[in-house]
Write a structure and sequence with these properties.
single chain; alpha+beta; 434 Repressor (Amino-terminal Domain); CBS-domain; 2 domains; 3-stranded mixed sheet; two-stranded antiparallel sheet; 9 helices; elongated
Length: about 180
């Protein structure tokens, strides 16, 4: 988180903190926070650094976690599933992609795009012939910032705890949880 001093008050309030609470976390005085927010002083670099570090720490604590936004019902395909079955599953559940799982291990993904491409190219009748790379897997405590970064390169992120898949997160899940921002 970059600290832009005119936004300090907004960031503090977004975290639900009083000036006193932020000051305590940053090891600075409450009056310093008040003066910075009212643009009455130009703080030293070391004070700005302390405040920025405190805001980063507090922001990470309050950041949504994978376990809070994941879908716990994982609708998946198996490598040997027929393409027709996968298309029916996608229609039934209103989804556009799903992980391909073999023995509780993610081995790939299958998406509408891969299906269309495969069907047009007559590549095969089973998922394993059309599937794409396996999605990234994160722990339940992974923050939404990292998940959002991963979703720029993957259509979904799987969540696992102690080697067992526990959920799936798509771009839609992230957007649904950010609508209040």
């Amino acid at each position: 988180m970059d600290l832009h001093l005119p936004d300090l008050k907004f960031m503090r309030k977004k975290l639900g903190l009083t000036q006193q609470e932020l000051a305590k976390q940053a090891a600075v005085s409450q009056s310093l926070i008040a003066k910075i927010e009212s643009s009455k002083i130009d703080p030293t670099y070391s004070h700005v650094q302390k405040i920025a570090e405190a805001l980063n720490r507090l922001n990470k604590k309050q950041e949504l976690k994978a376990s809070q936004i994941m879908q716990t019902k994982i609708i998946a395909a198996r490598p040997d599933d027929k393409i027709a079955l996968v298309i029916e599953k996608m229609k039934k559940y209103g989804i556009s992609q799903m992980p391909v799982i073999d023995n509780n291990t993610a081995v790939g993904t299958i998406s509408e795009t891969a299906l269309l491409h495969g069907l047009l190219q007559h590549k095969g009748e089973q998922v394993k012939e059309l599937m794409e790379e396996a999605p990234p897997i994160v722990a339940g405590q992974t923050g939404i910032t990292l998940i959002t970064n991963l979703l720029q390169f993957s259509s979904m992120v799987l969540v696992a705890e102690k080697g067992k898949l526990t959920g799936v997160i798509t771009k839609s899940d992230v957007l649904n949880n950010l609508k209040g921002f």
